[in-house]
């Protein structure tokens, strides 16, 4: 990477970092391209060298919030799935860290609001969060079935069943924090879910 490419990449990352903080604090409507540029210390026109508009910045920021906790390729999924319960434990640990990260949580709350108003964001949610997570989990469960670690069944449905509870707990955390209520009672729910789920599928 040459100096010019490095500079552009660095500026783009600054834009995303600042935009995430501003979106979290002021919401989508309350954050302008001008405000983002001013916070970084660049001209508004310079920001347009990296992003077309505010929506494109918001969608890029959203990818990090919606991203799957796993970035494994197929071989890594296969090797990890052979460890059985450790596979879903690792997935849930990453999911839990995302859930209780305050900056991530603020953006997640904002995204829940914007999902109802932005079609492209909804499509991105389904692609980046839902489809990828279900795919990773389903592939893992399929490998476990082939190796007689868990009972046979529909790996896709198993993935749906597993992740739906995680998403609901995450939503609970968001709602409680929105009303400044304690989330202590939910701190162990992720691990309890893993134990309960594993007992129902293991051989």
Structural features, described:
This protein has helices at residues 3-26, 33-40, 44-47, 54-66, 74-81, 85-100, 102-114, 119-146, 155-178, 189-201. The chain is mainly α. It starts with a helix and ends with a helix. 74% of the residues lie in helices and 0% in strands. It has ten helices and no strands. The radius of gyration is 19 Å and the shape is elongated.
Characterize this entry briefly:
With 203 residues, this protein is mostly helical. It has 10 helices and no strands.
Based on secondary structure, the structural category is mainly alpha
> Per DSSP, what share of the residues sits in E-state strands of 2 or more residues?
under 5%
Number of domains: 2
Total helices: the number is 10
Question: How far do the termini sit from each other?
Answer: 50 Å
Helix content: over 70%
Secondary-structure map:
Layout (H helix, E strand, L loop, with lengths): L2 H24 L6 H8 L3 H4 L6 H13 L7 H8 L3 H16 L1 H13 L4 H28 L8 H24 L10 H13 L2
Helix pairs in contact: 1-2, 1-4, 1-7, 4-8, 5-8, 6-9, 6-10, 7-9, 8-9, 9-10
Task: Write out key terms for the chains shown.
2 domains; mainly alpha; 203 residues; Arc Repressor Mutant, subunit A
């Amino acid at each position: 990477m040459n100096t010019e490419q490095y500079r552009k990449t660095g500026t783009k990352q600054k834009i995303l970092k600042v935009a995430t903080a501003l979106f979290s604090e002021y919401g989508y409507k309350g954050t302008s391209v001008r405000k983002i540029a001013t916070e970084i210390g660049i001209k508004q026109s310079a920001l347009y060298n990296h992003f077309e508009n505010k929506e494109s910045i918001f969608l890029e920021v959203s990818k990090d919030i919606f991203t799957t906790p796993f970035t494994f390729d197929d071989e890594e999924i296969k090797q990890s799935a052979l460890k059985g319960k450790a596979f879903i434990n690792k997935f849930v640990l990453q999911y839990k860290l995302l859930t209780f990260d305050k900056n991530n949580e603020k953006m997640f709350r904002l995204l829940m609001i914007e999902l109802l108003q932005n079609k492209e964001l909804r499509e991105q949610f389904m692609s980046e969060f839902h489809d990828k997570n279900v795919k990773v989990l389903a592939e893992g469960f399929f490998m476990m079935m082939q190796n007689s670690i868990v009972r046979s069944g529909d790996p896709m449905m198993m993935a749906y069943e597993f992740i739906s509870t995680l998403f609901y707990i995450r939503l609970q955390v968001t709602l409680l924090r929105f009303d400044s209520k304690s989330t202590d009672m939910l701190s162990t729910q992720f691990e309890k879910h893993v134990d309960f789920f594993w007992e129902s599928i293991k051989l």
